[in-house]
Design goal:
Blueprint (H helix, E strand, L loop, with lengths): L5 H13 L4 H16 L9 H8 L3 H7 L3 H10 L14 H15 L2 H14 L3 H29 L8 H17 L6 H15 L3
Length: 204
């Protein structure tokens, strides 16, 4: 019979002392530790070992909830209030599209933008991690844009021949390109993007 390692003993001790009610507390500690690490180091330099040490838990505790480092980082970043996407509320379809563009640009400025760019970079070459990125960050935004575009087409305020998927690519593409190339995502850029979209989409 194989004896448990020192790390496993530490983890077992933590579990016996904490009990089931402490599970959520450990989970929050892991996410908080990840956010603290992200304030002074890039995603590529963070490891499961560093997160575990910062959170005061064993690595097995982390792997209980997340399959890899990227998944921990995504939840730590995208579950913050500033990254929550609002549900469709605008009565005018184009105002809904404009709101999505402006909010996304605000979310991707400064430190938050740097972290998202690094997360996108970390996802390359791993299809499962890339799917997780889509699910955790892009899917809500895609759904909201699809709602407004389909609503605009149905009401006759958007061009009838607009392809919804291509339109969403045209909306998100410039924002993500600017993010990954280190350019500004300021109000002036958001305004120019929405002006271009207005000319391309709206029936006048």
């Amino acid at each position: 019979m194989q004896l448990p390692s020192a790390e496993q003993l530490q983890e077992m001790d933590h579990q016996f002392k904490a009990g089931r009610p402490r599970s959520e507390e450990s989970r929050r500690a892991i996410l908080d530790a990840t956010r603290r690490l992200l304030t002074h180091m890039p995603v590529s330099k963070i490891s499961i070992e560093a997160i575990a040490k910062k959170a005061g838990v064993g690595k097995t505790t982390i792997y209980r909830w997340w399959p890899n480092k990227q998944s921990v980082v995504m939840e730590a970043v995208f579950n913050q209030p500033g990254f929550q996407n609002f549900m469709p509320q605008a009565s005018v379809p184009f105002e809904g599209v404009r709101g999505q563009v402006e909010k996304l640009c605000r979310q991707l400025t400064g430190k938050n933008g740097r972290m998202v760019a690094e997360i996108i970079g970390e996802c390359q070459g791993d299809i499962e991690v890339l799917k997780a990125l889509v699910k955790n960050f892009f899917q809500d935004r895609y759904n909201a844009l699809a709602y407004y575009i389909q609503k605009g087409k149905a009401e006759g305020s958007f061009r009838e021949n607009i392809d919804v998927e291509v339109a969403i690519d045209a909306i998100l593409g410039p924002v993500i390109f600017r993010l990954m190339s280190g350019q500004n995502l300021d109000e002036a850029f958001a305004r120019k993007v929405t002006e271009m979209l207005y000319n391309a989409m709206v029936v006048r």
